[in-house]
Amino acid sequence: MNPTTNAEIAVREGDLRIALLLGLANWFLFLDHIPHNAVSALTLRNFGFSGATDLFVFVGGYAATLICARITLERGFLVAATRIFKRVWQLYAAYIVLFVIYIELISYVAARTAAPEIISEFNITGFIDHPIRTLIYGLFLQAKPLNLDVLQLFIVLMAMQPIIVIGLLRLPNLTLAASVAVYAAAHIFDWNLAAYPDGHWYFNPFCWQLLFVMGGWFGLVGKRYGRMIDVMQGIPALRAAALLYLLFALAIVSSGNVPTLARIIPAPVIETFLADDREHIAPHRILHFLALTFLFTWLVPRNWPRLRSYALQPIVKCGEEWLAVFCAGVFLSFAAHLILITGPNSLAMQVVVSVAGILAMTAVAYYVSWSKQQDYKSAVGAQS
């Protein structure tokens, strides 16, 4: 890679759209993690085949690859690899803390309230029967407590990051092709990681890595094809095709709630596209996400002035501090669910707990950001 590429990477890191999308993904994940929550009808998964997890993985791969590539170019691959594994350790430590406190809290609440069903609902039945064994499997990321699966997936994807970064820097197109090959092989040979006490991971990392690598590819190589992408986005027929596919996905997803659509669309089509593809992320789901990305980057250019507006700053801040916000969202979604199953589960209460949770996540983001600034000021003061 030459100095020009290095400069392009530095420029692309300042793209506020990345923080905006990571913040939205965190908010959507929080709302989706509250069962029977009417407000979750506003999240991405209700408007097409892809959802908040797709957005989180793709944008996370985009941002992480840009940062790691810059370190590689400026300070060498060895330094970049150590920074990557430091981040993996931080993610793993956050997961372990969440895992232990999460299952203990759910077990305590189930024992103290009239809601023992949340033990099976949050998939921690094995902890009640075999607590030590479950904790050990949890250390190896093989336990499957509800709502921690996205963080498990991201830990594995980040652990693969050194290979992804060096591949994208040296042979980007071949690296992307290899990612597609692994995705196809996982579908053909049913590759996945085992989970405890039975089954496999909810999000198959052999399949989901494709979105992660695609995000990194667009981050590093997309600039080369920027002119071509601009030309493609300027073709009305391509924009119309992307929009039609999004409308088709919306019709399929809405068919369960709109009887008229269910009668119009052939049953085999609905069954094919509505099949549970969360584990292996079906090709039509990836295509849906790419269509969304194609139209989003056309409608919201990099220099869009509203990205710095006061209205969007809470979302951007939640994207900048995504790890702390994600961890807070896991606990807040459980707290919101507990309130709804032990109290009045009305529409008004669902709105209240959803809004309160998002406000709390935003407060966490601003606090973490403020705390980092104070640490930086202290470090600068100590050096001077």
Quickly count the helices.
19
**Which outline best applies?**
globular
Which range best describes the helical content: under 10%, 10-25%, 25-40%, 40-55%, 55-70% or over 70%?
A: over 70%
Q: C-alpha Rg, in Å?
A: 22 Å
Largest sheet data: none
The end-to-end distance, rounded to whole angstroms, is 36 Å
What is the overall pLDDT average? 85
Low-confidence runs (pLDDT<50, min 5 residues)? none
Instruction: Decide which structural class fits the backbone.
Output: mainly alpha
Strand content: under 5%
Structure description:
The protein is mostly helical and 384 residues long. Helices cover 74% and strands 0% of the residues. The radius of gyration is 22 Å and the shape is globular.
Write the layout of secondary structure elements.
Blueprint: H1 3-12, H2 16-32, H3 52-75, H4 77-112, H5 118-121, H6 125-129, H7 131-139, H8 149-159, H9 161-170, H10 172-189, H11 205-221, H12 226-233, H13 236-254, H14 259-264, H15 267-274, H16 283-299, H17 313-320, H18 322-342, H19 347-383
Helix pairs in contact: 1-3, 2-3, 2-17, 2-18, 3-4, 3-8, 3-9, 3-11, 4-8, 4-18, 9-10, 9-11, 10-11, 13-16, 17-19, 18-19
Pick out its properties.
384 residues, mainly alpha, 74% helix
Offer a concise description of the structure:
Helices cover 74% and strands 0% of the residues. By secondary structure, the protein is mainly alpha-helical. It is globular, with a radius of gyration of 22 Å.
